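Q: I have 434 residues here and want to know how they pack in 3D. Can you give me a structure?
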Amino acid sequence: MKILLVGSGGREHAIALKLLAAPTPVKLFAAPGSDAIGELGTCLPFEADDLAGITGWAAENRPDLTIIGPEAALVAGLADSLRALGLAVFGHDAKTSRLEGSKSFAKDFMHRYHIPCAASVSVSELNNGEAIISTWTHGYPIVLKADGLAAGKGVVLATTQEEALATLQRFLDGQFGDASRVVLLEAPLLGMELSLHVLVDVDATHARYVMLPPCQDHKRIFEGDKGPNTGGMGAFGPIPFLKAEDITLLRDALVVPTVRGLQKEGLKARGVLFLGVMWTTNGPQLLEYNCRFGDPETQVLLQLLNEDLPQLLLEVAEGRLDRERVKLNPGCAISVVLAAEGYPDAPKKGVPIEVGTPSLTVIHAGTLRVDGRWVTNGGRVINLCTHAGNLASARERVEEGMESIHWPGMQYRKDIGLRALRHAEAGRTVRDAW
């Protein structure tokens, strides 16, 4: 199968490895790919947002399947351009991708289909926003979100009125360009956060979906969930204390109304939806939609998935998903991010990486090959991933394998999954205090 993979990060390297390990023979092309992905296939000279370049190549080379990783390419309409050529694409069209591309659009969608979520209001004028903040009745922190795509940086939890007002002004003044010309003010939600991925195949004639195991990401840079937010310092899944009835509630409260809403509004969906969820004392609440696989959650899910990935994604892309579940490996998977010195503010690039012979799966997220050796080339540099019979064993395995990779200034968290493990060992459930 000839496959075009769009993207260049850790998520795409993880997908590439899984594609090449499948029973279905794969000839892989990537746009733009990376030096690590280039060891698995052919990298093309097109950035992920180069719609004309990618579409032109696809028109000439006719891949059997295109998998689009980054959200910006989906929001820009890359899937639409490729489908117009009659090609199979795993990735939503631009209209459906507004669920991630516009937080106010997503929030209106949630309200229309009675999906539980935080109270919120959208503002585009400073005076109006200041008046709303000065009479805010939903408690602090006030969550301020840039409406559009802001590379994961357009969210601030303001703990005081002064901070909220200052953040609002920066956003509306164009801190993130057009992405922050509209700002969503949102009430805080407290509880346990989780990531829920759902394969969706929806059009006017059918609405099918398959839920993948819920995962948990760790956003803060330092152990104990301290320090600034990042793109994610590690993840694990499944969550050991979630019970079957909890998964059913996630399905009934969040997934089913989402799928029904997509079909009712004529939003074609052929890809994955990644639901950010906060489990509160009132049950699961939807934080946001993402129209693509998460990172580092993808690295975890692909360790768990026991499927021929090219065939599974092709089923979705061609609108013929016809199953209620996917085959999974038993046990738990974990991914720990190794980050560069200075991340997340100013990651140091060009630092040589010492790579031994790790017993773990090594995912390259931000590396470059220079004179025959790997060097750092981004904030999140490498993911170390493994799978074991349970979360405790997975944590032990990744800790043992950590010694095989090192560079000066390397940062990582030793507590990925530890809080959840202790919660489970104490006999607590998702309904107990987190």
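Q: Anything worth noting?
A: The chain has a mean pLDDT of 96. The CA atoms of residues 213 and 238 lie 5 Å apart.
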